[in-house]
Design brief:
The complex is a heterotrimer of chains A (329), B (326) and C (292). Chain A has one domain: 3-Layer(aba) Sandwich (Rossmann fold). Chain A contains nine helices and twelve strands. Chain A has helices at 47-55, 104-108, 110-115, 123-133, 150-162, 180-197, 208-214, 232-237, 242-249; strands spanning 4-14, 20-31, 36-41, 62-67, 70-71, 87-90, 168-172, 200-204, 217-222, 225-231, 299-300, 306-307. In chain A, strand 11 (299-300) and strand 12 (306-307) form a beta hairpin. The longest helix of chain A has 18 residues, at 180-197. In chain B, the strands form two sheets. In chain B, strands 6-7-8-3-9-10-12-11 form an eight-stranded mixed beta sheet, with helices on both faces. In chain B, strands 2-1-4-5 form a four-stranded antiparallel beta sheet, covered by helices on one side. Chain B has helices at residues 47-55, 80-89, 98-101, 108-120, 124-137, 143-147, 156-168, 186-203, 214-220, 238-243, 248-255, 321-325, and strands spanning 5-16, 19-31, 36-41, 63-70, 73-74, 91-94, 174-178, 206-210, 223-228, 231-237, 305-306, 312-313. In chain B, a hairpin with a 2-residue loop joins strand 4 (63-70) and strand 5 (73-74). Chain B is α/β, with parallel strands linked by helices. Helices cover 34% and strands 22% of the residues of chain B. Chain B contains twelve helices and twelve strands. Chain C has 292 residues and is mostly helical. Chain C has one domain (23-47, 70-291): MetI-like fold, CATH 1.10.3720.10. Chain C has helices at residues 2-8, 14-17, 25-47, 78-114, 116-131, 134-145, 149-176, 179-186, 191-227, 239-247, 254-281, 286-291. In chain C, helix 8 runs antiparallel to helix 9. The radius of gyration of chain C is 23 Å and the shape is elongated. In chain C, 46% of the residues are buried. The chains are: A alpha/beta (329), B alpha/beta (326), C mainly alpha (292). The structure holds adenosine-5'-triphosphate (2 copies) and magnesium ion (2 copies). One adenosine-5'-triphosphate sits between chains A (13, 15, 21, 23, 43-49, 92, 271) and B (152-158, 183). Residues 47-48, 92, 172 of chain A line the site of one magnesium ion.
Chain lengths: 329, 326, 292
């Protein structure tokens, strides 16, 4: 059993005009203690929605979310259960997730102020320690958010989650506003937390190079569903889903050569009206007849890999599922 | 050819409880028509503040020094009314902070067409059509439906693209894009980069591209300026700066990137604590973190000196000279 | 050269230490005018050269040295009456804004926080009040209760609470749904802490802006009711009723014009103050500039 388990999770929003938007359309994912799982995918494919569902900020329309063996409750009017507080989320946008009227130091101290886990005298020292860990100058603690740059805010958001001494953190784009040096520092911090304190992490990022570097396993999402998951190294060496391939091809390189990366052709689909069959088929270079009508399931391809694509349908003859938890649906 | 925008010796002081604080300290650069000028540098080094200064959007109580000449006029010395006309029509900005530029209570349609109607004097119908075209251009799924939505109904990346659409709406001559693609996945990002490149080629749009993503800079920027603690560390053509960085700080940034061929190698951040504007180190602000620093670095602020092919650098030690000579 | 040095070393004078938003000329004007009127209200008995109610034999006298602003149709000193008028309008307006805020703010806060049918009820009530033109509704209320200053105040409270309710409800709702509240809640913060730490500080600013603007409106509305003969009763030196009297005696323009100027000056001053409060409370005043 994994620390965080998402089973066939669906998240559905309603637009003003009444149309239902299934932003997450049945996604399964596991994150073990001490494991970093990268989640990558097109913008608007439902990564943030999945993240919010994972911590109970949005209700799931179907499926289950469990943390440490217990179901995660949707956050209501009551205070969050102590057992769930070790599951934390770092929001995507550090301009919205920090209260503009409180000093950032006070906000970092929130976790201990709320849970009374630390005597008041030691708050200051602990805040300083957290700021240092995320690479911020200590004199920032007394500032208000509007006096910080984007990257500084983002690190405050990370420090705030770390203050809760989490066992599992869902990080939504935690590194994108940071310069490469600070990014390296924070990425190393995440790796250390996973290795030394066995913190599990779901790392949502558009920076594939960082995901490749940090994540043990990577899941690729497209339009509300997971299309491929594999150990990171393998995924990069041999992407199996055409969308994964497209992502890897589009990574720009910092070599000063001036090559514009290739953009994936075709329209970005609207989750309210997903294409029939394989959701990727209108943009897939290898589209076949059956892709238009049949929905490919996420199936195992040797070891630790799963792909949802008709191109790879034969290989594994139904072997007894040695690792049931990784098989979804 | 005279550049479209020429910034000389830009200084910015922000108002704080303890008096004015120097955030940007003598930054100069040129942006040519049809060119993409990249601004990189440490988080908190003053990139956003530089951009806000050009638009006259600094927080109340801020002061500027130096000049920023665009089409014969000094942006820093403009009156408010003149500025307002300049913004949107001549210069547009895509903000790093998406919340401050998208109004939470107005539909996307209102926010997009308002600009078009006010600035270009389009009729309601024309503005609507143009808005749909813009959303299509930034690759929004189902633009007609998107027009009716409110900002919170969109994902981070979608909001970023809506902002880009608003920025491009009035066909400005200069687009200042602060982290325009951070919330975008690489395939959509590639699309936006191509769009910007095309506008530069076809419409002679000039772009100031502020980003931490050195890969994006490499792909799009014609020239790059790297800032550290409010000053320019190194600037020059992209291929030079990214290909053979000479300033120790630029080197540090590039060396901290995950290596594409060796993903298992530990990432190496630049050692030491970041500089904060309150306690900017004396002399070269980078000296406490620099492996090559000499006693003289602690005293004199190194001037920006031209080195090779249009490149300038502020480091008298120049430890990486040899690597370029090769 | 010297100009460059000046630019590089901005002087940290005491003036510069005042937060930027308070240094705008209009703010200073607003502050000074409001402060001056408050002082006048406080010190009117000592400042006024004549008894505001004392009738003299010099009717309709134009402004002169003895009667700075002239005398009215009963020979009362207009200057003294204007000064005493501040004692009526300003405290009443403030009281009424406080009442309107207590009612509107509480209802709005509950509506925003609880949602559901409470929200429906409060907002439909507010909609109803909004649907009728303010002055008409106020007039109707006074007409029902009978004229008089106290009833006029009640009427103005009754028509102005929905403004507060809407603002507070909107703020409470947006802030409770904001990501920073979510972050706090994920850390285990109970809702009352979220209300105290996140919601209150974030609504204090907009609410005080509203209060300043509403005080101006309230003065205007009270005066309007008095002008129509529904508020203050004749002998009281109330600005609105003085303007009304003046309107019947145009040839003696000073009777109506000076109280009118008093109303305009204080209403404008409260509006300036409201606007600058908005800037001062806005942590990033850039927002306004960006919106422009
Ligand atoms: N409150 C909402 N109401 C309606 N639709 C919504 C709402 N929130 C999100 N959506 C839609 O759900 C889809 C997924 O959004 P989500 O924020 O999860 O995407 P994402 O994968 O995080 O994208 P990004 O990488 O751009 O942040 C989008 O199409 C978005 O428009
Ligand atoms: N209103 C303010 N008052 C005081 N200091 C401020 C204010 N706004 C920004 N700063 C400081 O100014 C410096 C420059 O900020 P700026 O936003 O320009 O950084 P940046 O280079 O854009 O960084 P990032 O890449 O993280 O966005 C930072 O150190 C920040 O803390
Ligand atoms: Mg997202
Ligand atoms: Mg910035």
């Amino acid at each position: 059993m994994s620390l965080l388990e998402l089973r066939d999770v669906k998240v559905v929003y309603q637009r003003r005009d009444g149309t239902l938007v299934p932003a997450v359309a049945g996604a399964s994912l596991d994150v073990d203690a001490g494991e970093i799982v990268g989640l990558v995918g097109e913008t608007g494919c439902g990564k943030s929605s999945l993240a919010k569902a994972a911590v109970g900020l949005v209700p799931v329309a179907a499926g289950t979310v469990t943390f440490d063996g217990r179901p995660v409750h949707v956050l209501g009017r009551r205070a969050r259960r102590a057992s769930e507080r070790r599951l934390q989320l770092v929001f995507q946008n550090p301009y919205e997730s920090i209260n503009p009227r409180r000093t950032v130091g006070a906000q970092v101290a929130d976790a201990f102020a709320i849970s009374h886990t630390l005597p008041r005298e030691s708050w200051r020292a602990r805040v300083d320690e957290l700021l240092r860990r995320v690479g911020l100058p200590l004199n920032l603690a007394r500032r208000f958010p509007h006096q910080l740059s984007g990257g500084q805010r983002q690190r405050i958001a990370i420090a705030r989650a770390l203050a809760a001494d989490p066992a599992m953190i869902v990080l939504d784009e935690p590194l994108s506003a940071l310069d490469s040096s600070v990014q390296a520092q924070v990425a190393n911090l995440l790796v250390d937390l996973a290795r030394d304190l066995h913190v599990g992490m779901l790392l949502i990022s558009h920076d594939l190079a960082i995901v490749r570097h940090v994540a043990h396993r990577t899941a690729v999402m497209y339009l509300g569903v997971i299309v491929e998951t594999a150990p990171t190294a393998g995924l990069w060496r041999k992407p199996m889903h055409p969308y994964t391939q497209a992502l890897i091809d589009a990574v720009p390189h910092a070599d000063g050569a001036g090559h514009l990366p290739v953009a994936l052709s075709g329209e970005i689909p609207d989750p309210a009206r997903p294409p029939s069959g394989c959701r990727f088929h209108p943009r897939c270079p290898h589209v076949m007849e059956r892709c238009l009508s049949d929905v490919p399931e996420l199936v195992k391809h040797g070891g630790d890999r799963q792909v949802a694509c008709w191109l790879h349908e034969e290989p594994v003859a139904a072997r007894p599922a040695d690792d049931l938890r990784r098989v979804s649906r | 050819m005279t550049p479209l925008l020429s910034v000389r010796d830009l200084h910015v002081w922000l108002d704080t409880a303890r008096g004015p604080l120097s955030i940007v300290d003598g930054v100069s650069f040129d942006v040519g028509e049809g060119q993409v000028f990249g601004l990189a540098g440490e988080s908190g080094s003053g990139k956003t503040i530089t951009a806000l200064a050009l638009l006259g959007l600094l927080p109340a109580g801020a002061r500027t020094g130096g000049v920023a000449i665009m089409a014969g006029r000094d942006l820093l010395a403009m009156r408010t009314s003149e500025r307002r006309r300049t913004r949107g029509r001549e210069i547009a900005m895509v903000f790093q902070d998406p919340t401050s530029s998208l109004h939470p209570m107005l539909t996307i349609e209102r926010q997009l067409t308002e600009h078009l109607r006010y600035q270009l004097g389009l009729s309601g119908k024309e503005a609507h059509l143009r808005a749909v075209a813009l959303l299509t251009e930034v690759r929004m799924p189902d633009p007609e439906a998107a027009m009716r939505g409110y900002p919170h109904q969109f994902s981070g990346g979608m909001r970023q693209r809506i902002q880009i659409a608003i920025g491009l709406a009035c066909e400005p001559r200069l687009l200042i894009a602060d982290e325009p693609t951070t919330a975008l996945d690489v395939t959509v990002q590639a699309g936006i980069l191509r769009l910007l490149r095309r506008l530069c080629k076809e419409k002679n749009l000039a772009v100031i591209l502020i980003t931490h993503d050195l890969g994006v800079l490499s792909a799009l920027a014609d020239s790059i300026t790297v800032m550290y603690a409010g000053r320019v560390a190194e600037s020059g053509p992209t291929s030079q700066v990214m290909g053979h960085a000479r300033h120790p700080y630029t080197r540090g940034l590039i060396d901290a990137l995950p290596h594409p061929e060796a993903p298992d190698r530990v990432l190496i951040p630049i050692a030491g604590d970041p500089a904060s504007p309150e306690s900017r180190p004396s002399g070269c602000a980078f000296h406490p973190r620099c492996r090559y620093s000499r006693p003289s670095c602690q005293i004199a602020i190194p001037p920006l000196i031209p080195i090779d092919d249009g490149r300038e650098m502020a480091c008298p030690v120049d430890p990486f000279m040899a690597s370029v000579a090769r | 050269m010297s100009s460059v040095t000046v630019l590089r070393q901005p002087v940290a004078s005491a003036w510069r230490r005042i937060p930027g938003a308070w240094r705008q000329p209009l703010t200073v004007v607003g502050l000074v005018v409001v402060a001056a009127w408050l002082l006048v209200a406080l010190l009117a008995p000592w400042l006024a050269p004549h008894d505001p109610l004392a009738q003299g034999s010099n009717l309709y006298q134009a402004p002169s040295a003895t009667h700075l602003l002239g005398t009215d149709e009963l020979g009362r000193d207009v200057f003294s009456r204007v000064l005493w008028g501040a004692r009526i309008s300003i405290p009443l307006a403030m009281l009424l804004v406080v009442l309107a805020f207590l009612i509107g703010g509480t209802l709005g806060g509950l509506a925003g926080y609880l949602g559901g049918w409470v929200d429906e009820l409060v907002m439909r009530g507010a909609d109803f009040v909004f649907a009728v033109p303010t002055i008409l509704l106020a007039m109707a209320v006074v007409a029902a209760l009978g004229p008089g200053l106290f009833h006029a105040v009640l009427a103005v409270v009754l028509v102005s609470w929905p403004g507060h309710a809407r603002v507070v409800r909107g703020l409470v709702r947006t802030i409770m749904q904001s990501e920073y509240v979510a972050v706090g809640r994920l850390l285990g913060s109970p809702t009352h802490r979220a209300l105290a730490v996140d919601v209150l500080p974030n609504i204090a600013g907009p609410v005080s802006v509203l209060a300043a603007l509403e005080t101006g409106n309230a003065i205007l509305l009270l005066s309007a009711l008095s002008f129509l003969g529904l508020g203050a009763r004749p002998p009281d030196p109330e600005w609105g009723s003085m303007v009304s009297t003046g309107a019947q005696h145009f040839e003696a323009w000073w009777i109506g014009v000076f109280p009118g100027i008093a109303i305009v000056s204080i209403v404008l001053a409260f509006n300036f103050l409201g606007d600058s409060l908005r800037d001062a409370f806005d942590p990033k005043t850039i927002i306004k500039a960006r919106g422009a």
